[in-house]
Design a protein that fits this description.
Elements (H helix, E strand, L loop, with lengths): L1 E4 L5 E4 L4 E6 L3 E5 L4 E4 L3 H14 L2 H13 L1
Antiparallel strand pairs: 1-2, 3-4, 4-5
Length: 73
């Protein structure tokens, strides 16, 4: 879960596993796997850093690295 801020300065928590795409238009727009779009005040880079931190915290980063090594090996 990552905490983000809507344009009206309200914070919310988003399950990062549902994020499909992040774009800057220049506002950062997050598209979820269900097609819903959320615009946040954080930069694209900030959102990505929070997602990576979340993935590391739940142990997903090492799992992805292992899967990639298995595919290459």
């Amino acid at each position: 879960m990552v905490t983000l801020t809507r344009l009206n300065n309200q914070t919310f928590t988003l399950n990062a596993l549902y994020i499909e795409q992040i774009q800057s238009f220049p506002d950062t727009t997050i598209t979820l796997s269900n097609g819903k779009k959320i615009v946040v005040t954080e930069t694209e880079e900030e959102v990505i850093n929070r997602i990576e931190h979340f993935y590391k915290r739940i142990g997903l980063i090492p799992l992805i690295s292992k899967l990639q090594e298995d595919e290459e090996g």
